[in-house]
Structure formats: C-alpha cells, structure tokens
Amino acid sequence: MEVNEKIAVEHGLKPDEYQKICDLLKRVPNLTELGIFSAMWNEHCSYKSSRLHLKKLNTKGKKVIQGPGENAGVIDIGDDDAIVFKIESHNHPSFIEPYQGAATGVGGIMRDVFTMGARPIANLNSIHFGSTQHKKTKNLLRGVVKGIGGYGNCIGVPTIAGQTCFDQSYNGNILVNAMTLGLVNKNKIFYSKAAGINKPVIYVGSKTGRDGIHGASMASAIFDDKIEEKKPTVQVGDPFTEKLLLEACLELMSDKSIIAIQDMGAAGLTSSSIEMASKGNLGIELHLDKVPCREEKMTPYEIMLSESQERMLIVLENGKEDSAKKIFDKWNLDFAVIGKTTDSKNIELYFEKEKVANVPIKFLANEAPMYDRPWKKTKLPQKIKFSNNELKKLKFDDVIKKMISHPNICSKQWIWEQYDHTVMGDTIQKPGGDAGVVRVHGTKKAVASSVDSSASYCNAHPFTGGKQVVCEAWRNLVSVGAEPIAITNCLNFGNPEKKENMGEFVECIDGINEASKYLNFPVVSGNVSFYNETKDKGIKPTPTIGGVGLIKDYKNLMTMKFKSKENLVLVIGKTEGNLDQSIFANVILDEKKGPPPEINLFNEKNNGETVLKIIKEKLVLSVHDVSLGGIMIGALKMCIAGSKGIKFYKFKNLTNVYQYFFSEDQGRYIIEVEKNNLKKVESILKKNSVHFDLLGETTDKEIIINDEPTFTVDKVTEFYKGWLYKYMS
Amino acid sequence: MNSSVIIFPGSNCDRDMDVALKKFGFKNKMVWHDDDKLPKSDLIVLPGGFSYGDYLRCGSIAGKSKIIQSVIDFANSGGMVLGICNGFQILTETGLLKGVLQQNKNIEFICKNIFVKINNSENKFFENIDKDVLELHIAHNEGNYFCSEDELKSLEDNNQIAAYYCSSDGKVDDKSNPNGAIKNIAGIFNEKKNILGMMPHPERMIDKYLSGEDGSKFFENLIRNLK
User: What ipTM does the predicted assembly reach?
Assistant: First the structure.
C-alpha cells in the first residue's frame, strides 16, 4: 500500500505532522514506518501537548532515587529499601470494554513496577463514573471492579486503597487510574537504558496477537457514536501469564545478566525497542520473523503495533542467553532472541529476509512534535451568599442521612470486598481508612499510600484544585501516622486542542507544583490522559494524586476509629465556614458555583507536622482528616469505624450550624484524646501555633447534637454502608 | 516438625503459608510442582492462589500435575495434608476430598473476615483447640462448597465436616454463609481425618496487626498435635 496524507490522517496524524515525517526522512514512509511514527507521535506516547508543562514539575528531593522518565519513580525508605511506584490511566479502553480495560490497566502498571526489579506489594485505584442515574454507570462500575479484582487477585498483590467518584461529567468518559507500589533493594534497580553494541535483544512473555493494535492511538482520540466499533483495539489480559512473567523476571534479575529492560505497554514492541535504544543513544535491529506470534501471517506492521499484554523486551549481556532461557522455560514462557543493539542509531526491521523499515531513532523520539497549545486562565468564581432562611428550613436529621449515604461519601465496601486486600500477609490498614498501609516484609517499617482527586474543586478553579489534591494526599498519609515522601500523578483532562481544557491542565499543574514544592512532596512519576471527551463534552479536570509515605515502626500505625467513650474530640485547624463547592452546597442546596476552599500551605504543613508530632508522642487515640462533607461527615466516619457515638459541644463563633459542620475548609484533622492528655496536647498545639477547637466527646452509641440525640451509630452505619449495596443489587 | 508447601505456577499464598508455618515452629521447605519427590515431611500444604491460572476449572490442572501423585501417595499412607482455598479446590479435583467448589452465590469475589465453628475436634488438626469459634479470613471467587445428597450424608455420618460458617457467637445460619456453601460448610476432612481442605485462610490471621489472631491458634495447636 502506497502511503499518502489520507492514510496518515487515518492513523491519527495531522497533515502537518505527516509533512514533517516526509521532510525528516526525505522520502515517503512505507506503511510499517508510518505505523511506527503514528504510535510514537501520538499524544499517549509523545506527551506532545503536555511535555512543555510537565517540565515545570517539582521532581527532586533528598529521598528521590528516580524521578519521572523511567518506567516508574523510586524513593528511598532507608536500610537499602526503596519503593517503586506509579499511577497510570486506562480510561478509554475501560469505557469501551470495562472488564478488560480495567484489568489490563492493573496489569500494565504492575509491569512498569516489576520491570524495575521491584516486587509489587500494593495496588490502589481511583475510578470515576458518570451519574448514578446514567444507564451505563452500573454496568461500567461492575465491569471495572471485576476487572481490577480479576487481575490483582490472581497475581496475588493486595489492593489496599482507592477512591470512587460519581459525576455526570464522566457519563461518556469514565476514568480508571491504577497505581502500584513495589519494593526493591536500592542497589538492584533496573532501568530501560540500553548500553553496548551487539548485545542480544530478547523478547519474553506472551505471544504477540492482533489485539490492541493502535490502542495508544485510540487513547489519544475523542469518542464519537461509533465507539463500540473500537472494541478490537482493547487488549485482553491474562493475569496468570503476568504472574509467571513477574516471577521469571525477578528470578533473572537476581544476577547480572540484564543491561536494560522495558515492558511492552502502549505501542508495544515499537515504543519499548525505541525507548531503550533512544535512552542509550544506540541503534536497534529486529528480525520480526523471530517474534513469537499467536496468530498466523501477522505482518511487520501488525507485529510492531500489537499491544498484546504480558510481554517484555530485554537487552542482555552477551553469553547469558542460555541461562536466561532456562528461567523462562521453567516458567513456561516464550523466550526469543529477536535482534541486537547496533551503532547505526536507526531502528532497522527485517522480515522474511527483507529490510522492511529503517528510521533514525531520533526522528521518532527527540523529533516528536511538541506543542505550546493556547490556553485560557480560569477566573476565581465569586463567593456565593448562602441565605440563612434557606438553611433554617432544613431538617438536620434529613441532611445527615442524605450526606452520609451520598454516593461520593458512602462506604465503598461493596467494591473493596471484591479485591483481595490481605494477600501477602502484610496489610495492616485495609481499604476504608485514610490510607492503605502495608508492612515492608520482614522489617519494622510500613508504607502508607492513598489516592485522591477533587474534580469539583479543580473545575471551579484549577489552580486551587491542583494544590488541594496534593494537600489531601499529604493529609491522608499524616492521618495514619506516616511521614509523606512523594507523589505520582495521573492527569485526566479533556481535549488539549481546546484552550479551556488546556488552561485547566496548565493551571492544575501549577497548583500541584506549588503545593508539592511547599510540602517537599515531589512528583516522581505519572501519566497524562487527554481527550477524555465524547461528542464535544469533556470531563471535569481530574488530576489524581497518589501519595506514598513511611511509618518507621508499624506499631505506631494510627487509625480513624474512635477507641472508647468519654474521650475528647478536637478539630485541628481553623473552621471558617466556607460552604462554596462543598458537597453540602452541591447536594443539599443544589448550588454548584463558587470558589473552592482556599489553601493555606503554611497552615497545611504546620498542622500536618504537628499532628504527626502528637501521634509520635502517643498522645492521640485516633486521627482522621476533614475532607468531603466537613466536620460532621469526618466525625461520623470515625464513629462508624469504631462503633462509637459522639456528643458535639455547642459551637461558638460561626453564624449557623450548617456552616460549622459541613464547610470543607482545608488543613483540618479530627483527633481523639484521652481527657488526662488534653493539657499535653494543648501545649504542643499552642507551642506550634496550631489553631484547634474542642468539638465534643465520644459516647457509647448515641450521636448527640445540641443536647439532642439524633441517630445511633448503628443507624448511621446502615445509611453509610447500605447505599452502594442497594444500588448494585 | 517438617512441613512442605507445594508451589504451582499461579500459587500466590505460598509465601504467606511459609511465613506462618515457620513462625509457629515448622521447618518448612518449598516444593516445585514439576518435582516428583516430596522431602521428608510431617505436613504437606497446598496453598491458595490461582494454580495454572485456574483455567479449565479451579484446581483441575494442579490436580494432574507431576508432584500431585506423591501427595496422593503420602495422604493415602496416612500423612497429614492441608489444602487452603485453591489447595482445597485441588484436593477435591484429585478426589482425595469429596464434592466441588462452585462459584460464590453472589458471583463476586469475596475478601473479608468470617467466623467458623469447628465441628469435629477429634483429629490432629483441631484436637485440644481452646476455641470452637474462630475468626478467619476468606478471599475467593469459588468457595461455594457443593456435594451430592449421598456424599453429604456420608460426610455427616463419618463426622467429616471440619467447620461451618457461623456468626460471631457460633450460630450456623444463612446470614453467616458468605458464599452459598451447602449447609454452611467451610471445610471438610477425608474419612481418616488426615486430610483437611478449607476455604478460610488461617495464615492471614497470625498477628494482631493483621485482620486478627485466630490463625495463630490454628497453627499453634496443629504443631502441638503433631509433636
């Protein structure tokens, strides 16, 4: 087939991009070469709209061993132990085929982590669906949860935390972001940079099929009515093979045979071979007849663009082929020497003794387009004046019931009970806490991790929203007693070719960056997902932040459950009473406008560090950060977790009870303190200039507001836990 | 006491079981599925996971693996064999235990704490255990035990039912049945009571920072009985 502009456009390339390819090559590419260019130059692989802005991110820190640019980020947790982690999106495939889309998302991110020599020790996920009323939502939720579970459960890596949101902006584009943490010895980390010429290039894992061809291009396009036709571009996962691949790779990594290793993720053999060669400033020669294929008569074009799962590309030391093959034979996996590194600096492909492609690698990697797309600033919205009369009409009991059983607040137990969260025997904080926590096997240490997003805040004011998500992740780690170390981000946005969407992206990044710098909470890995748009309607800007922190002695793990009755409950941080953008305003008052709560980074850092101090001094019994739903929801969740009640003291200062209980002012925590420890806690708080209020005291079962009993904890638990089960049954 | 844990491709609770056995005093060895001989053992454990991907049917391919003939011989000569979760499924596939494990009634994977009531403690697995209701943990997609009426009768007649799912105070009822298992059966023995298969994972409940500690009771008791 003769390549022309029309075919290039069908491959997702823009006419000027195609012209640039012809100019660079000084000829028309053949079809295989065009396929390779389209795979490398699409948004998903080239980051062409985002690269310019991602460069600004704060990626350095004392504990950062590897920042963005590798398969995953790496941080130092002491004693030669390091944590490898990353979050990645699988949004487009999951909307088209929820089970396989979500499953392969989990598989892909785990591969990114074990490619670096780390054994995965925890999975997390952040999933966003359309309105609960939308006809597709239930099936998508069911399929995604089954897919995530089906993959992670089979591999035997616990899923320890997550986040689920419903909002109509995701009706046509759900989000599935999967995160994995792995443990590695910091002196035995493997990278993707090839080195040396004439080194054998090895293909291991599953055979190559026709599935997922152009998956990365599909993920770089907006959806239309014909989206169902794209099902064949979704890959099919086989967690069993991945488990074998994991064990085989870790076995091979125990000696020094591997020079470089890269998993075949988006754009399969194309991007893995080109990335390894590009990083090493080398050429690579591949003989495609030697690639193990699952289907007959696959063409070079198909082999290079297949996104079949569970495959790896390895550059091996010379002479290590036989010993390496033995390991893969033992695990019943394909092993084939398919080429070698060269000094040509080109990628050269051979098929049936013919040269079928020859392209300088720098054209594919360095010369990929980079755009400074126009973008528009979002103004801070006007504050809303809430009418006291309107508020007075509300019944407190009804409000509590509606809030605690709201889809975005209620318990997600229906979801996480379908994930194996205890395999590997080190999960000390299960899903349902502020962060998931796993012990570092065989040591006193534990690693905490959480994943967060705040699309409504980001939508109202991207810069503030960006800051808020980072702070939220920080607070979740503090709440379990972990010292926050670093983050990974998954940036889910609409169409970057629209200046509003591009503006949301740029300003969210600026917000993330500012908070990340101030909190010394660097970004070590991440991924961008643009074009989350269907028929002109884009999602709310949704940067998802995965945070990781360290608990030096796991015995000091802090939880959010109230421990016993008659203890004092304090709110750390100042309650200003801002209801704008709160879930209360949205759900109870149907008010969706207004600015998100302000972020004061000084208070955020100071409050968090002080809370960590009192946890360390063993002066608190439970801690929970205040987020969606404000103090009331925060306190009720602590009641529910500990099966205790609370008597709220009469509040001062603010004009009305709803502002006090439901505002989502930032930088706050709720803590439970024994009465005879109050003095000590007060003195630490005062010494550190941390504002606090006495909120109430714990009771046996009753929840008492203004001296009047409302619900018992059992009743509230029913509202909290019941909603999702009812919805899904 | 020497124990051996068999690793099949796709096993994923092998390490957890190794940790648990060693914690309570067993000298444990790991045995690869492709071996044909077992090391000298007082206890053989088939761990949880997804052996051979659970393709075809849970445990069925493992039930035909190279090592399994030695396990069958060991069991038939009176050796102690424990199958947890996928291990239980494998034991039914070999025919060492009766019945089958079907997909959970709600067709969803379930991971949570449950309670089991020990039904028969006149055997080396449970003899002298000081609690008859244990809080354990399940994590499975196919734990819904089923057998024919005749088989059920013979299980009951020979006192081969090891444990029932129950409430925290030991009530065996529908409400406390997590997966639809016939008669709430969580685990069974062979006729001679030297083979135990059960869905719950005691190895995940071995210290207070995990989901609970009743797994410790199981292992402490087991090694004491084997000595």
Answer: 0.96
